[in-house]
Amino acid sequence: MTIQLYNTLTRRKEPFQPLEKDRVHFYVCGPTVYNFIHIGNARVFVFFDVVRRYLTYRGYEVHYIQNFTDVDDRLIKQSIEEGRAVPEVAESYIKAYFEDMDDLGVNRADVHPRATEHIKEMQDAIRALIKKGYAYEVDGDVYYRPLKKEDYGQLSNQPLEELKAGARIEMNDRKDNPLDFALWKKAKPGEISWDSPWGKGRPGWHIECSAMARKYLGDTLDIHAGGMDLCFPHHENEIAQSEAWTGKPFARYWLHNGFINMGAEKMSKSLGNVERVRDLRSRYTGRELRWFLLSAHYRNPISFSDESIRQIGGAIARIDTAVTNLSHRIGAALDGEAEKVMRERLRTLTVDFEKAMDDDLNTANAISVLFEGVHLANELVARDVVSRGSLEAVLGWLNHFGGDILGLVKTTREVDLEAEIEAKIEERQQARRDRDFSRADAIRDELAAQGILLEDTPQGVRWRRK
């Protein structure tokens, strides 16, 4: 079956056919690094991490780019509040981003370009747009004329009046049209800036991704993705300026994930119900959060609650138990190849898994298939006699589809390592109860040398990898 993707641009499912037969050019809009990321941001990065893994499984060479916006109005404001330079603020939150994503099992992109490292590329794009009449300079600011492009608004599918209401419109009367947006912003006194043909300044938000995407992936991307909140104005404006710049389609498939609700309310800063990943990690494991983010179809909204995470914790425990039991049985099992009936049942599971993912990347249905694999594992382990080949085949299936693709199943070695860490933590706790603080400190140092950091909380000791 051909992979079917829902394309926001055409508002229908379409067969996935990249420009190059076996290669996918894939760009995901990364965070603006002025603060810690929240769980809504994390849904983007976790889900498209799975998409990348699945496309790789399906035989594609995936060139995956995810940027960092490390200069904009919010970063400048944050730098003033924190009393640190913009680059220092950005660097600290990029580091925090990777810590959060490592804990949620998100693999690094092939390239994580930063806006501030691509000023030349942005200026080249702006010069080209001015030359073509799509952009104009006013006293050090450069604006783009989106209405010059006849199909502007096609991605978000909104009337122009609604687009104006939703746009980030700067209140000044120097624009030709209120919908015109900034490609280059004149520097205010004391702001971070770069030299340019239009004076000292910095790039606008939208031109950053256009320039970085073209540098690393070419004129036309196969997939451009991000949260639904980016559909307008960011992605709409990227299309307008990129296609005016190159004269070619900017992206073939546009994928957008839905929002996260906190109970019955949409998560938003105005309501004060935003949950940062950094804070959630003190209450839940990274795998629990990852599972939650994949538990609904990506285009649907998803509701966050403590109860939903508790249920996920139980599901993860059942999977870990199945993996551990399979591993233990393998050690004592009789030699022998996998039974034919077992191979057939695994082949059926594989077909069902691919059917779920091929149908617009339905991770919720794929997780259901994963649990069918867990049921098969439990059935196998319960037998009095079973061949090593059958046990290894089922364990391999769980590790591959549940681990390599979904990132939800830990390998046997990972489970064993975590058991060793937990045992060390308990040894440290006993040493503290015995008031043997030098031994407790030595255990902490031993774990730190292995990249394991401990955090003593009112709820107990939590650990994470550096």
TrEMBL record:
Class of the enzyme per the UniProt entry, highest EC level: ligase
EC number(s) given by UniProt: 6.1.1.16
SMART domains on file: DALR_2
Protein origin, superkingdom: Bacteria
Subunit structure as annotated in this protein's UniProt entry: Monomer.
GO molecular function, one term: ATP binding
GO biological processes: cysteinyl-tRNA aminoacylation
Keywords assigned: Aminoacyl-tRNA synthetase, ATP-binding, Cytoplasm, Ligase, Metal-binding, Nucleotide-binding, Protein biosynthesis, Zinc
Protein name: Cysteine--tRNA ligase
Residues annotated to bind ATP: K269
Family from the record: Belongs to the class-I aminoacyl-tRNA synthetase family.
Reaction(s) catalysed (UniProt annotation): tRNA(Cys) + L-cysteine + ATP = L-cysteinyl-tRNA(Cys) + AMP + diphosphate
A GO term from the CC aspect: cytosol
Organism: Marininema mesophilum
